Amino acid sequence: MTIVPILVLALGTFAFRFGGTLLRDRITLSPRVRDLLATGAIVLLVALVATSTLTKGHAFAGWSLPAGVAVGGLLAWRKAPFVVVVVAAAATTALLRLAGVA
């Protein structure tokens, strides 16, 4: 029963991507629309990060997870290697949880 929605979403995604390739040279967007699309992508990404950082299920995730994400974000902003960012964020979260910070 769940195969139908998966196929519909897969077909829609393929059509959306294929349509973009076909219409790339036929449609020109104004600079204002391009700026709005770029801003929309950033807002969507920030909302995704905030939701996955601050909530676990329907409740607050606790302080250890946002602290780990903050450490990872700071290291990424300072242009640390990706492996260092991931390990430091995970270690921060794990150590805070080990210390009893929820």
Automatic annotation (TrEMBL):
The entry's keywords: Membrane, Transmembrane, Transmembrane helix
Question: Which spans are transmembrane here?
Answer: 6-24, 36-54, 60-77, 82-100
Superkingdom of the source species: Bacteria
Q: Which InterPro entries match?
A: Brnchd-chn_aa_trnsp_AzlD (IPR008407)
Coiled coil ranges (UniProt) are: none
Provide the protein name.
Branched-chain amino acid transport protein (AzlD)
Per the UniProt entry, what species is this protein from, by scientific name? Actinokineospora globicatena
